[in-house]
Specification:
Length: about 325
């Protein structure tokens, strides 16, 4: 593990302790890149308040963590979490610091209901992307996008994981993808179905290897999420699948949701041991635990309610209940 360089500079009376706090976090294996800039914002805030000595008074903490009118609960909880961690660090070093109560952190509730595509809708989307015409500005896009969308659904991968695959990460001999430094800063292996592997072999033979990325944009870097999202919207329109607008879905990420639900259904229809299969799904999708996987297991009318009794036997506490469409 390589120690990461700290590029931010602090100026408040807590500057040296902030630097030490960041170094400790990064030494323990946390990236702490975005968090370092959040800490920099706190540093500037402390300078504006006129803090003269190394300490963290309650009135300053309360002002920093006060909910703004425009903030959602999920956004508001981050400053509370960060300053709580830093305050505990300060106390460990003998600095007088107010530690906000954990109860002040808003409860994180899942408000967005994922859109689970029906299989015929997935088929329409894939047919639409296969018909994508060539474009002189992006001459390889019509070859690249069909494979990107198949990995999003057929392997349940995150969009960033697909876009940042490099040639060395794609083993076309064994049919295994390597996701490097993914979410939670972990690598994982993603085996592909033989049909998917065959498609990628054909794709690779046509595209060549002029870029380090397996799906190169015209500048030889990775495609942006925004570009793929815009194409996704076009595919929905071509497939006659209604869209409620940005933030209302269907979302690009719902292809991953749909993969999980459809995989669960296949196992159920095959009479597989769901207690043994669910942890495999969790690992395959790159989650830390079953609790991370539960967001993807929203049941649909196609498999509800006969599957529910079997799920409740071993995972009722992690499977969310909601009104199904």
């Amino acid at each position: 593990m390589h120690e990461q360089k700290i590029n931010v500079k602090f100026h408040s009376p807590l500057a040296n302790l902030m630097t030490e706090f960041l170094r400790e976090k990064q030494t323990c294996g946390y990236r702490y890149q975005r968090e370092s800039y959040e800490l920099l914002r706190l540093d500037r805030f402390l300078c504006r308040t006129g803090l003269k000595t190394a300490g963290l008074p309650r009135d300053i903490v309360d002002e920093w963590t006060a909910k703004q009118a425009h903030e959602k609960p999920g956004t508001q909880k981050l400053p509370v979490i960060r300053i709580r961690q830093f305050a505990l660090f300060l106390r460990q070093h003998g600095i007088d610091a107010y530690v906000p109560e954990g109860t002040k952190i808003p409860v994180n509730r899942i408000e967005f209901t994922p859109y689970i595509f029906r299989r015929e809708e997935i088929e329409k989307i894939l047919q639409a992307v296969d018909r994508m015409p060539s474009d002189t500005r992006t001459p390889m896009r019509h070859l690249i996008m069909p494979e990107i969308f198949r990995l999003l659904y057929c392997c349940g991968m995150r969009i960033n994981e697909v876009l940042h695959l490099k040639i060395e990460d794609v083993d076309l001999g064994s049919g295994v993808l390597t996701v490097r430094d993914g979410k939670f800063s972990k690598d994982r292996l993603v085996p592909m179905a033989p049909s998917t592997t065959l498609r990628l072999r054909r794709y690779a033979s046509v595209l060549g290897n002029s870029s380090e990325f397996f799906f190169p944009a015209p500048d030889d870097g990775p495609y942006s999420k925004e570009t793929v999202y815009q194409i996704f919207r076009q595919l929905l329109l071509a497939s006659h699948i209604p869209h409620g607008g940005r933030g209302r879905g269907p979302r690009l990420h719902d292809l991953r949701h749909s993969y999980a639900v459809h995989r669960l259904e296949i196992w159920y229809r095959q009479g597989a041991d769901l207690a043994a299969k669910l942890p495999l799904l969790s690992t395959y999708m790159g989650h830390k635990s079953l609790v991370g996987t539960q967001r993807y297991l929203h049941l649909t009318p196609e498999i509800f309610p006969d599957i529910i009794s079997r799920l409740d036997q071993f995972a009722g506490h992690v499977i969310p209940r909601r009104a199904v469409r």
